[in-house]
Amino acid sequence: MGFNIFKKAKKEEKKIESPKAEQKKEALKQVSVSRKGVDSSFRVFMNSVITEKASNLAAMNTYTFKVYPGTSKGAVKKAVKDLYGVDAVKVNMVNIHSKEIRVGKTRGIKQGFRKAVVKVKEGQKIEMMSA
Prior knowledge:
Layout: H1 19-42, E1 45-48, H2 52-58, E2 62-67, H3 73-84, E3 88-96, E4 99-103, E5 106-110, E6 113-120
Helix pairs in contact: 1-3
């Protein structure tokens, strides 16, 4: 019988953790749990829609966001609460379909997207979007 010279020898590792290391692990767990909702909220919004119509709606406490496809109204409502600290009263979703565009002879496709229109409770504002 032969032996395998390419096989690595197994080393036994002895883990001796100090009380400080255990405290650090607990602190990291608490941080990861508290940021869990916020991280998922960042995955809802792509960016805000800044158009003339969206600016006029912002004056009436209604804000427009571009969201990822498949995002639900409930997820948008929760994300607005987590990220901006305001209460969403109503959420409307709009699917903008893709469109064919031409520049000279070349043809292309303007990609479609999903848009969320969020009505915020009276007296509350999203500061980064206000005029």
